# Entry
Amino acid sequence: MGTKSVGLRRLHSVTAAGLGMVAGVIAAVAAQRGALDAINRRLERLEEQASNQQRANLAMQQRQHWELLSKAIDDPELAEVLDLYEVPVTTQKRRQYLFANAAYTNLLNYHRIGNLTLDEFFKHARALFQNAIVRDYWEATRHDRDSLEGTEEAKIAQMIDELLLQLDEADTGEWWVVGEPPTDQ
# Structure
């Protein structure tokens, strides 16, 4: 009977040690999990800050773009610096093109910072390109867009080109139904 009692005590000791070890492992895993959760929360905050900073940078760049264009629109001598069109244009046409550039760039940046989905961008662009001057500007700056191959802006420009073809080929006066808005990816 004494042997059984020693064996049971040893079994209880081994079991208690094993349970203690398991409890220690669980505590260590829980502590690691807590640390990992804290790291993940910190990474999410940093990603959000980076995203906010990117949007702020885009907004600042858009503001600077508008300031430059405004100066060029107001001063024909400064506008000559931005006259990169393949055919000569009048001072009036150059000012109109600069404003068309500002309107399109504003729409594009509004999409880039997340205030418009691609579908919404498409619908606004479809309206913007009803204007003959904006279409003339688009054609006059085609060579500029050709150098953007492989960029997000090139994909959007291709979407606009396809829309313009569809609008030109449409046999309806209801331009607001022409073209299939893209799906956001």
Q: What stands out?
A: The mean pLDDT is 84. The radius of gyration is 32 Å.
